[in-house]
Amino acid sequence: MAETKNLSSRIKEYLPSELTGFLEAVGAIAAYQGYHLYLVGGVVRDLLLDRSNLDLDLVVEGDAVALAQQAASVTQGKLTVHRRFGTARLRWGKWSIDFARARSETYDRPGALPRVNPGSLSEDLFRRDFTINAMAINLNPGCYGELIDSYGGRADLEKRLVRVLHEKSFTDDATRIWRALRYEQRLDFQLEADTRRLLARDIPMLDTISSDRVRHELELVLKEAQPEKVLRRAKELKVLSRLHPALKASHTLSARFQRAREVTIPESQLASVYLALLTYPLTDKEMEDFISLLRVPGRSAEVVRDSQRLKTKLKLLATANLAPSRIYTALQGYAPAALLVSAVATDSPAVSRNIGLFYGWLRYVKPSLTGDCLIQMGVAPGPGVREFLERLRAARLDGEIATRQEEREVVTKWLQERG
Ligand code: CTP
Q: Of ligand 1's atoms, which has the minimum distance to the CA of residue 183?
């Protein structure tokens, strides 16, 4: 970790030169307008820890939207403005740069969204969750690179501690309880002793948070590199049972999460797979409670539900030498991610082999003849067409036929048998 207070050379090492050039240019524009511009929050923490971070947060003492508009003209980036909040996001290459006006926040009641007012940088840092996230770097020419660390964030990074800035932090915003566990586990830090005491005291405050915000926190947990670590810690500190009393974070769950990362799961589905693994041991009723409590959206809810339903197929799938057509009939119609959940959750090699076969191959098998072809061959229009198509698929799956010609022959035979 760099020891100096001026971090301009550290910024140079940490960020690519086009981005350093951009920050210097925006700092100069800000100064010209009479504003102060700072890099704040997670990126400052990660810069000091030398962990990569592609999301830059800029705080402006001044008109953040106007500055973002000027900054956008320096790049080829895409600017999205939220006038109501006085914020803007500039997307540029693989970078995302947020501009916000420095603000103070007050909470009318625990769990409410904060009342926001323009404020100084110092107020803006004080409203933040943890000391390690409450540092800023000055970007104005003349003081470029100067670290502003009013709350001991750098010392806490060195001591590897997650520490709140004040007593009421978790009361104001109990989502910070989950955030504390995320940072602790992600960075391999510890909760500072008083912070841990306050966290334990404020666990009931988790009930003041809206379903959508709680779900969002859980989604962020599930995006971590090793969410099981956060969940285990949440279990230990009784945060997980507050989410739902039936949730457990056992060694089995950790092993399943690890296995999920080892099989090839599309990145976009990994969080749903984790969620379904977390809820896998629940009863149907507990699962439905969980879905409605957290307002789990359609796609993820489908994966959670299908994973439960698939439990009824596991006995069959454990059978040795199961015909591919039977595997197909058992597994078709379920969300693909739920298949991965079942494959990861099972201890039976036969089950995971059969699911793997279906997922990687069988589900794509279909006859080459279409319904129209069958009608031309003499199959009566109506439900019989579908039945023939399914029979053709089954025959293909089981290797009884392999070509279009063979399909024609077998259809002719079936028609003759029917008379
Ligand atoms: N913040 C906060 N309280 C919250 C959420 C956010 O004080 N409940 C502040 C923190 O200072 C945080 C900043 O807002 O650094 C940005 O939030 P976010 O993007 O969620 O976090 P990052 O620090 O960027 O961390 P991460 O690496 O997890 O994205």
A: 28
